[in-house]
Amino acid sequence: MSLETTFERVDLPLEYPFTIARGTSETVENVIVEIEDGEGRVGIGGAAPSTHYGETVETVEAVLPDLLAVVEEVGDPHELARIERRTRERVRHNPAARAAVSIALHDLVTKRLEIPLYRYWGFDPAAAPTTSYTIGIDDTERMVEKTETALERGYDVLKVKVGTGRDEDILEAIRTVAPAATIRVDANEAWSPREAIRTIEALSAYDLEFVEQPVPAEDPEGLRYVYERSPLPIAVDESLRTATDVPRVADRCDIANLKLMKCGGLREARRIVHTARAHGLEVMCGCMLESVASIAPACHLAPALEYVDLDGALLLADDPYRGVPMPDGEIDLAGHGTAGTGLTCR
User: Fold this and answer.
1) In this predicted structure, what is the pLDDT of residue 328?
2) Residue 239 in contact with residue 73, Cβ under 8 Å?
3) Euclidean distance between CA atoms 110 and 121, whole angstroms
4) Do residues 134 and 17 touch, judged by C-beta distance below 8 A?
5) Collapsed DSSP state (helix, strand, coil) of residue 329
6) What is the pTM of this model?
7) Which residues contact 195 (CB under 8 A, 6 or more apart)?
8) How many C-beta atoms lie closer than 10 Å to residue 218's C-beta?
9) HSE on the CB side for 51, CA within 13 Å?
10) H or E segment at 275?
11) Residue 295's closest CA among 307, 285, 304, 305?
12) What number is the average pLDDT over the span 161-190?
């Protein structure tokens, strides 16, 4: 079999400027990979690099020729394990670039088999949890407005970004307009351990589901300190990149948050799920600010998880792709019924 590969950069404007504890974005750049099998089928995958993990669109574009050369050398998209091993040997880091190739291959393989990706994995489409919708940091009134807009659009699971010094005021205001919503908060490493406990104890009055990444990933003992004293469950994100990280955090968190863009692909994502389960953790799949080209495959993984935060494409003003429908945050895998990841061009 002969495979042909291409990639291109796309600019994705955001609906609103998006702020977390580390900074603000108004637009994002993704890189789209296409792998064609010579019989009219094309697998599509997206890379959403993060400078926090040492990647940019420039580094993605720099390594993709090497990664895609492996795909063309192997020549058979069904040899997923072999391609994964060889691409990892060729390019050791750059997880978003490797994830885009992994996604495109899985999309192509399941298109060739004429089944959706979740069926390839044997998952129950009805088991997918509802995605959260993220409220980025802003002035309090604007965060309340964003919350009201999310509720009007049908999203009643909210992830509120915190780490501002006025977090309690923010949560009080948001809970006032969203009394029935499920709310979880994400500090993105913003707090010291003692500050985290003080803040979590104050925020627990607002009926929160869990707290994500309260302290820096470089402070594992601080994470343990918070986990042992927190009145709320603790999820880790930046502290966990690949399956090998799970044993190091398993005794200091309740929830492991995987992301395709930081773990390097769908096969590694499933290894994280299995490893986390073996250590008694619940699992969430999160995302970056990214196109449906990389959100869609994560939706197919959702039935294996307790939580999902797959709103990255929902925060865009425009996306050249359409993927798995998410009416009111419900991931409608069975409804789309399309082979592959369900990705189509608008």
Assistant:
1) 94
2) no
3) 10
4) no
5) helix
6) 0.96
7) none
8) 10
9) 7
10) helix 266-278
11) 285
12) 97
Angle of CA points 23, 26, 29, to nearest 5°:
100
Decide which of 118, 148, 177 is a domain's last residue: 118
| Amino acid at residue number 152 | E
The CATH number covering residue 31 comes to 3.30.390.10
Contact indicator for 178, 147 with CB cutoff of 8 Å: yes
Range of the domain at 263: 123-345
> How would you label 8-37 residue by residue, b for 16+ Cβ within 10 Å and e otherwise?
eebebebeeebbbbeeeeeebbbbbbbbbb
**For the chain, how many structural domains are there in total?**
2
Record the tokens describing residue 126, joined without a space: 């009805």
In which residue are the tokens 């978003």 written? 96
Q: What's the pLDDT score for residue 235?
A: 98
Which residue has tokens 């003080």? Answer: 198
Residue 37 structure tokens: 């099998």
Instruction: Write out the two tokens for 239.
Output: 């502290």
- Residue entry with tokens 């200091």: 252
Does residue 346 register a pLDDT over 80? no
128/114 same-domain check: no
